[in-house]
Structures are given as structure tokens and as C-alpha cells.
Amino acid sequence: MSWRVPLADVDFDQEEYEAVEAVLKSRWLTMGAVTQQFEQAFSEFSGIEHCIAVSNCTAGLHLALVALGIGAGDEVIVPSLSFVATANTVRYAGAKPVFADIIGEEDLTISPDSIKARITPKTKAIMVMHYGGYACDMTQILEIAKENHLSIVEDAAHAAGSSLDSKSLGGWGEVGCFSFFPNKNMTTAEGGMVTTNDANLAHKIRLLRSHAMTSITWDRYQGHAWSYDVVGLGYNYRIDEIRSALGITQLKKLKLNNQKRRSLTNYYWQALNQMVPEVRTPFCRHSGESSNHILPIILPVGANRPEIMERMKEQGIQTSIHYPPIHLFSYYRQLDSTVALEITEDLAKRELTLPLFPGLENTDVKSVVRALADSL
Ligand SMILES: *Cc1c(COP(=O)(O)O)cnc(C)c1O
């Protein structure tokens, strides 16, 4: 299928090709100087002290939970309106994901009141997800966490370049995790970044990323070590130099590309408001600095979403949904079929995601909104 307007697109040019080629020519292929440089660059960009590059965001979330000591018998409060990895990683750690509802039509992030209602003596952490790069209500969530002695893990997969009160997302909780999957705001093909301002957690995460070995191949190549000990049960969640090289070039473009997303988002909101006022535009009054990762809309009650998506497809426009609620997937229903989340279930049925990427033009936005108006 060749889309006239795809949902997302990468921004690659000569710089990325050359960066990859340089790594291949250097003959050092994984976790070396280029990865260190990528981590350093991400730390400078985000203002978060410790950045640990990993094979993907899912691996990063798993490491975050393990480093926080979360395991069997523990509960972690998570949103259900997220990508399945948010809850899966809690299961990897051996703990139980407890699903919370979202705020509402204006704001699709986890509801602080719903979090409060789900705290039990077993709760150890809250995993928030900054939907579309729009910050969760971190002021309230931090307060709840403090009162109840809970850790916060931020699934910041959407949030590269996002901030709230001038402070980067991914740096509000104990640990943040970013994704560099191809449809995210910057990509390394597969890849992720774990961020923390806690030196002790950073040390643990670095160890766990590579089998909990006290020295890595790179240290030994550098002549810094000749053997190693294994001090825990670690994983192979490393990133390689090819991906890190892509990450360095992509990070340089992130600010400008996010500005383009912001301006396209404003244009969308204006056009939607004028041409299809019955459609709701979540986050249009949001106060943080968003990465504007995706463009979610809420269709009116009774609208036939599959038919609308089909009609837009006929015009070459790709749309998507974010997300089928996690608690309704077969796997999670088998674990607990009693979970009911009123707002999540209502809005997830009516949510539609429109195309958004830096290379999109205002004229494309106009034609997407016109096609939506016709389809409705
Ligand atoms: C993309 C995404 C992930 C997973 O990222 P990977 O890098 O593919 O592991 C996790 N959570 C959310 C919300 C995502 O959008």
C-alpha cells in the first residue's frame, strides 16, 4: 500500500548515511565511544544527568523496575491507554500492573484521582506515560508518590524534547525511558534511552544492561580491565554503535523537527475547529512544551470509526488508533477480567490518530481534515 499521506515518516538524509558508514569503517560495532557520545549528547539536550542507551524503550522500562527493586508481590499503577509494553514490563519484573483511568477528553494521560484510588499496601511505583508527548499532571503525581513512598517511572516513549515548567520529561520521576522506534520523534531504528538524576540507580541500570558484568568488552579493549565479575542477574539490553551514530544525528534535528510538529499541530487544531467542530482535540489547552508526537482526535459519540478509517484510506490517508486499552487484551483479561475503566473504554473507542510528521505540509493537513469532514 502506498499512502498519499502516511501516518508518520522518518527524516533521514546524507548525514545519517555518513554516520552509519563511519561506524562500519571504524570496525568497532557495539557499545563504545559513539554510544558514550550519544549518551552525553542526550544528557546535554535533556538536562538529565545520567543517560543510558539501550536496545529499546521496553528493555529500558524493564531495567528501571528491576533497578528500583520491584518484583514479585509488588504492584505498579499504570495507565491502560498506552502501548502494551507499559504493562508488560511490570509483568517481566514479576510484579502486578494495576490499571488506572485517564483524565478525560481534554487530557488523555493518567488521572491522579484514579491513581490515588488504586494505592494498596503492595503498591511500589507509578508508571506514567506522557501521551503524545504531553506531560502527565506531574505536580499532583509527585505529591501522591511522596505521600505514599512510591517511585515514579516515566514511559517517555513519546516525549523526546518534551518539558513541563522548563524541566524535561523523563527527569521528573526516579527513572525515564525514551523510545527511538522508527515512528517516534527521533529514531535509531530500534533503540531507547534510560534517564535518571540518581547516580546509584544509573550505576545499577548500567550494570544490568550488560549481564551485570563489572567491565564490558570496550573497557577491556581500552586496556582498562582484563577480567570481570558478575554481580547480579543482568540482561543483554545493549545498543550498538550503528544505532548510536544514527541517534546522534537524529538528536541534532529534534528541536527543529519538534517545532515543525508544533506548528502543524496548531494548524490541525484550527482547521479541525473550523471544519469539523463536532470533533474534540485533546491537549489543545495543554500548558507544557510537548514534543507533539501524535495528533489524536476524539470522534463524536456514535461515529463509525472503522468506516471513517476506510474512507480516509480510499483517499490515500493513513490513520491509526492510540490505543486499544491494555486491560481489554486477551492476555490481560485472562489475568483479571474484572478491570473496568469507564473513561478509558469510552475514549479509546472514539479516538482516531491523524498523520503527523515534520515533512508534512499545511496543504496536507487541510486535505486530511477535508477528508475527515467528508468521511464523517
Ligand atoms: C513505542 C512505545 C514503547 C516501546 O518502545 P520500544 O522502543 O519499541 O520498545 C513503549 N511505550 C510507549 C507508550 C510507546 O509508544
Structure write-up:
With 376 residues, the protein is an alpha/beta fold. The chain folds into two domains: 14-250, 3-Layer(aba) Sandwich (Aspartate Aminotransferase, domain 2); 254-375, Aspartate Aminotransferase, domain 1 (Alpha-Beta Complex), CATH 3.90.1150. It has 13 helices and 13 strands. The chain has a seven-stranded mixed β-sheet, with helices on both faces. A two-stranded antiparallel sheet has the order 4-5. Strand 2 (75-79), helix 4 (85-92) and strand 3 (96-100) form a beta-alpha-beta unit. The protein starts with 13 loop residues before the first helix and ends with a helix. The protein binds pyridoxal-5'-phosphate (PLP). Pyridoxal-5'-phosphate binds at residues 56-58, 82-83, 85-86, 129, 155, 157-158, 179, 181, 192.
Report the β-strand fraction as a percent range: 5-15%
Spatial strand order of the main sheet: 1-11-10-7-6-2-3
Based on helices, strands and strand pairing, what is the structural class?
Answer: alpha/beta
Instruction: Based on the coordinates given, report the CATH architecture of the largest domain.
Output: 3-Layer(aba) Sandwich
* Total tally of structural domains: 2
Total number of strands: 13
Text of the CATH class of the largest domain: Alpha Beta
Are any ligands bound, and if so which? pyridoxal-5'-phosphate
What is the element string, with H for helices and E for strands? HHEHEHEEEHEHEEEEEHHHEHHHEH
CATH names the topology of the largest domain as Aspartate Aminotransferase, domain 2
